[in-house]
Hints:
Strand content of chain A: 5-15%
Largest interface: A-B, 46 and 46 residues
Largest sheet of chain A: 3 strands, antiparallel
Shape of chain A: elongated
Number of strands of chain A: 3
Radius of gyration of chain A: 17 Å
Number of helices of chain A: 6
Mean pLDDT of chain A: 96
Low-confidence stretches of chain A: none
Structural class of chain A: alpha+beta
Oligomer: homodimer
Distance between the termini of chain A: 38 Å
Amino acid sequence: xxxxxxxxxxxxxxxxxxxxxxxxxxxxxxxxxxxxxxxxxxxxxxxxxxxxxxxxxxxxxxxxxxxxxxxxxxxxxxxxxxxxxxxxxxxxxxxxxxxxxxxx
Amino acid sequence: xxxxxxxxxxxxxxxxxxxxxxxxxxxxxxxxxxxxxxxxxxxxxxxxxxxxxxxxxxxxxxxxxxxxxxxxxxxxxxxxxxxxxxxxxxxxxxxxxxxxxxxx
DNA sequence: AATACATATGAACAGATATTCATATGTTCA
DNA sequence: TGAACATATGAATATCTGTTCATATGTATT
Lengths: 104, 104
């Protein structure tokens, strides 16, 4: 078996590749990264996130929806507010891996 | 100091955020992810990568340029060929962190 | 019930991005 | 030198993406 075939065999299947790319797609926008940093350690309301991120309420809400669909964030309603937080600790790990890479 | 201010202070500066998003942007396209997997362990020529990835020579070359600009891959010329490989082991780490996340 | 507040959402738009096609550049070998 | 091969590149295009604006939905308070 030649080298090319070996690499082909080791390659994740297409579905995994797409899912992986999809995950990173969530992290490739500065607004979304800021949102995730905002809610990494403690849950935050949309208006607080908006204030922290320095964007508009609408833009933040749209992006939260995207993150929600990707299951990267979870939320609970409290009165008029909705509190968001990251859905699992992998998010923090991936972000800090990335940070480690760029700060060389 | 309230919670919002604390989070704001812990937030990476904009430049870091953008660089981080930029890094993940390199990984948010299936073709680029496949290319990186192709050259994770051993260097490969453009035509071999093209064959492994199952795309066109032109598309692969364009994407290699993008990855090159982001310093995620390095290359050396050997005869008519150009052999590409990943520029550092962080790439593999980030990819496998991502894989770990999606395979839950 | 009326008002104010918090969040979500749809449409529209501008900018970014990946691919394709055609072709240029560069290298080897006869 | 000319032919064949390998890679790079520019232009064009179609698609995708993030923001904005306007407004809808939902909740609490009076």
